Amino acid sequence: MEPLLEIKDLKIEFDTFEGVSHVLKGIYLTLGRGDTLGLVGETGCGKSITAKAILRLLPIPPARIVSGEILFEGEDLLKKSEEEMKKIRGRRIAMVFQDPMTFLNPLFTIEEQLVDVILAHERGDGPGLQGERLNRKRAVQKAIELLSEVKIPQPEMRIKSYPHEFSGGMRQRVLIAMALSSSPQILIADEPTTALDVTIQAQILHLIRDLVQTHGHSVLLVSHDLGVVARVCKRIAVMYAGIIVESCSTAQLFRRPYHPYTKGLLNSILTFSKREGEAQVIKGMIPDLIQPPPGCRFHPRCLEAMGVCEKEEPRIQEIEEGHWVSCHLYKSPSSPSVSSRTDFSKGGCGEISKLFFSYG
Amino acid sequence: MNSTNPTNPTNPINSVWTRWKIERESQIRSLKLTVYTLSRSPLSVIGFCFVLVFLVIALIGPWIITYPGDVTGAIHMDQKLRAPSSRHPFGTDEVGRDIYSRVIIGTRLSLQIGLIIIFVAMGIGVPLGIIAGYFGGWVNEIIMRITDIFLSIPGLLLALAIVGALGPGIKNAMLALSIVWWPGYVRLVQGKTLSLREESFVEAAKSIGASKMRIVFNHILPNCTSPIIVKASMDMGMAILFAANLGFIGVGAQPPIPEWGAMISTGRNYLPDHWWMATFPGLGILITVLGFNLLGDGLRDVLDPQSRI
Amino acid sequence: MDEMIARLLELKNLKKYFPLKKGIFKGGDGYVRAVDGISFFIKEGNSFGLVGESGSGKTTVARTILRLIEPTEGEILWGGKDICKFSESGMKELRKNMQMIFQDPHSSLNPRKTVFKSVAEPLTIHEGMRGRKLREGVEELLEIVGLKREHMFRYPHELSGGQKQRVGIARALSLHPKLLILDEPTSALDVSVQAQMLNFLESLQKKMSLTYLFISHNLAVIRYACDTVAVMYLGRIIEMGETECIFSSPRHPYTKALVSAVPLPQAEQPDKIVLLEGDIPSATHIPSGCRFHTRCPEKIGAICEEDEPTTRYFSDGSQVDCHLYQ
Fold first, then answer.
1. How far apart are CA A244 and CA A38, in angstroms?
2. Which of C176, C162, C163, C244 minimizes the C-alpha distance to C204?
3. pTM exceeds cut of 0.90
4. A98/chain B closest Cα distance in angstroms
5. % of chain A with per-residue pLDDT over 70
6. Contact by Cβ (8 Å): A229, A219
7. What per-residue confidence (pLDDT) applies to C26?
8. Is the dihedral of CA B245, B246, B247, B248 positive or negative?
9. Hey, what's the torsion of the CAs at C231, C186, C204, C50, to 10 degrees?
10. CB of C263 less than 8 A from some CB of A
11. Partners for C (CB, 8 Å, 3+ pairs)?
């Protein structure tokens, strides 16, 4: 079945004072219908840029889309005009951001803002003023329904409030309601709970999971928090310095990560469990994207780096079913060339040789 | 050189210079960034060029004029009202003085006027603003209310009133304009101080035991410099313009001082036939004020983007 | 007697109320009761964690201990003496003993001061150091926190979050304090670097015989770094004890909710977590009785709405404020 959203070899550059920053260097992502995908990475890895690029929200210039495709239901979003994108944004693909306060106009009530959005979608054009009175009553009704769906208590009364009268968690719910008002196919959430308290975060994540189960939206959740992503998403893609290093199911990621960065990351993060010794550190620092390291961008910090790693960029390959890795250590079973690491005659190759044997 | 440079032990001879370079490395870098950003905006570059021309002329003025005597009051009635020619590029005025020389020296005069007004205004306004902003309470109330009173009167009118009371003359005009200008700085600095007061680093300074004075001068003041520089650069142009206004009305610089406003005032009576008498000083004002405004705009975008209205 | 000496810092019934301007709010008694009666002590060499969400008052507690804010009521005992009664000069002396690492490394350093100036400032103020001696002192401190000499003359905006944090630590260490209050020391750092910072802080603690008070909303950080933990809700400590005990078997329903709300980066996800209803109440309208009753999933009944629970102490040294355990 054709995936709902497919990003192919997306390359994006940014013009800065110090030079050209190669922020995205060939991103591959797929999102199927009803899928929940978590895009995870540290600061500067490019995950937010990827999310914004889907909806063409990047400022061009200084950003520049060098090459690649973003296929939404088979159509390349990068080739669409601004007019066409307006019909997609907020309607077929909706986005929720980190700080809800900056996305709600403090001068208007929640009712006015929600109704504005609902009517805009029904009319098929941007938010505006004409033809409102006819549908207003229906729109208000729908807005109240949306608010109760996102579990805001007493929605008929709360709808008349102003944004500043809502707490952070409530505002985020309103934004989610706005995003879902047109029943989009994809919901992109960029760090939606980072600014919220722990117990409120749990509520919002639970809500997103519920809504996905009820309505079947696809979700792309961008976060730096592996725990958040693990709670909501069935698949996770790990990003490092502008490339996807590993992409697989949540279970696969935590039980059997392949990429050295993913392994290092999992060893270094604080988990809320009984402490066992010291957490480990990935040596080195995130690379400068204006002059990124040659070959594999992670090789200067990689404990398992080989000679080829600084010469050639690894391509992302499916080394197990549903498990994609971008690393020279692993070769896809269908690939003709054999990695220098594997030697079938010797039994001590461990997991790598198992891969090949299992695929015959 | 006994003291070895800890950052470069192999080069003791250059240690002072090297040390200075390393210490200033970051500042040099941010200066380069400022210049680069400014150069990206064509209007800012124009503004900068105008200001540069203004400053250079003000500096070398006395050496490039052709009739120094005309500046101070020489009269050549036989040369009066001559149109621009090779001998008098800007023509002569009603008593035969070379307008070119007078405009050039007028540049120097305008620079002096502008600088004095701005510096006096800053000297009064900035400390008051910081004190008001940092200490708050009734100190703030008193200072801000007085400031409000001054700000509620249109600048030129207030200046006129003060000069009217003190008597005409360039010194009184400068005094009057300084009085008009200082409240703006109080407002600006008080606002900035209020926001800086809540910053973490001020709290950190308190927690390490810094006294209030130290916090005010060592922490808050240096962070106010950006908006002050922006305002000062815009104000230069406006101060010069206001001084010219007063000169135009007749209560500023008095003849034979070659102040641009005064020159336009006399030249006005000779329009349109002897257009050169008013035009060239007018151009001087135009280029100067425009230059400072454009430069100030550009600087604001670089140094203090949030204050953009 | 030994017990008393070992208590480096002790708070007794600390309260901080912020008055509200009258006439704007209807109802309530016109105060934000940010800290509403806190008592705990920290033993020398310990790492104590104060955990809570927004409105819990934990940040206010930190600032009140340093007297950056004046307490409304209560005692703050340092080595047995109440520092609330100290004069300005007494406080200046005290500052040498108690320092704070601020939450946001990006704003806790003066953007106009180089690293050198920022770290040197305490030394300049208190010891009057200057010239070569000052320079050597700063270099030593930077070395302790793992920064290189080349960073000395950089400005904050040229440093990473972790480096800025270290500069803040160097500054705090310059006066050889006994107590370090760390306000969200890792929240501005990348996830892979957070543990590194905590490891570093731990080694620093051993090397310089420091006592730590951690303030955080991040339970993973507290569990990793602290021996003792106190959970705060709306200005009160509702549970306190050894970190492992409290987090592995929480008693108070709020602690239970907090613990189950932490998202775990692992393949097995819990089916059911304790979800609290509604929002955290505002500190201007603190609920009557047990302040958690409006959201408590284990509420007993009227007693929770009317009476404030008293503290119940357990033999393992932990305590809880809840009617379920009265």
1. 12
2. C176
3. no
4. 22
5. 88
6. no
7. 55
8. positive
9. -10
10. yes
11. A, B
